[in-house]
Amino acid sequence: MKLTLTLWQRLLGLLPGELTVHETEWLISPQQHMPLMAQRRAVIIINRARLFAMLFALLTPLWIAVDVVALPMELAAQLAGMRLMATAAFAWLVFGHHSDGTLRHAYRAMATLFAIPTLFYIASHLLLTRYHLQGLSAAIGTGYAFLPFVLLAGFAIFPLTLLESATFASPILIADGLAWLLQWQVIDWPSFSGAFWLLTLISAVATLASMSQLAFMIALVNQAVRDTLTGCFSRRSAEEMLDLQFTLAQRARRPLSVAFIDLDHFKSINDKHGHEAGDRALQSLTQAIGDTLRHGDILTRWGGEEFLLLMPETDRQQAQQALARLRRHGLGRRPDGSPLTASIGLTESQADQAASWQQLVEIADARMYRAKQQGRDRVVAADDEAPPAAAPADVPELLAQPL
What we know:
By secondary structure, the protein is α+β, with helices and mostly antiparallel strands. The chain folds into 2 domains: 2-225, no CATH class; 235-398, Reverse transcriptase/Diguanylate cyclase domain (Alpha-Beta Plaits, 2-Layer Sandwich). It has helices spanning 2-12, 21-24, 35-59, 64-70, 73-95, 103-128, 136-143, 147-154, 162-181, 189-225, 235-252, 266-273, 275-292, 316-329, 357-373, and strands at residues 256-263, 298-303, 306-312, 342-348, 378-380. Helix 3 (35-59) runs parallel beside helix 6 (103-128), helix 5 (73-95) packs antiparallel against helix 6 (103-128) and helix 12 (266-273) crosses helix 13. The longest helix has 37 residues, at 189-225. It is elongated and about 90 Å long.
């Protein structure tokens, strides 16, 4: 595994530590990408697809003048009609294509972008084979054969995984092979083999460039969205993810649970042992929570000793079970060796009928304070919960200390 990671880093131009072993898997398939990463990448892909389409929309009709001068008039007229249709399709992609910023729409934009010139290439190739061109006309006609090379090189501007690059490049390679095979009776096999090998090589280089872009994007996003002390997500990124997850949950009518976690008596750690000890306590907490996080759960630092745990596709009962497992596992240690404890407020979007993610956080925050008032080191998951009969036996000496 270490050799594989080193090879990836050398190929993609990364420095050691920029991507973890787990994150290198993100370069293969998008299935493991966190929602925030997927959303930002979708926006980039859509914007670059529109930029590419705008370039094609401007340049495609300009070549009509060259065709009129160099090609037979009948052929030039047919090619001009095809170029105008392609230009209209590119213009629609720039101005008429609507997107909600998801990967599904990003894939649709890319598929449309590359389908237009691919179809144009096949149609123009079949049309040009009907004419016996010579001299300048032959040179201009040969230029149409370079369109697949341009398309495959264009993949380099998109941050794509290996599987995504292969998926989008395959139709272009197949279209090129099909265009040649339609003339199999007169095909020049050495020329075809050489051209197809070059196309494959360009495709491989473009794929490597796309993966390199993705790798650097992952590294930059991690630096931007992570809290430098604890390594979990920062408040700014938490707000973005809450907005995204709440929207998805409302659209799919699925539950979204949020736990507001506040360390008990954190101020006493800073006062008695110093801020460095407090920092280590926070790191101990995030490490302990990270060890028990389920796939899809998201831990964020909301501020100071406050953390939000986002649990998509999780109802109240499932969230309570997850938090119970977390508390059994432990939340780390205080500087004196005693266990860290936390007051936790839990809310769930459907059960609490939250109208926004802000309201979801407010409810969880209020319940966290109720947990403090009831003796700390507990979870409050509903407004009508009765307080337990007694406080936990392992921290009675701390109950009189400040928050």
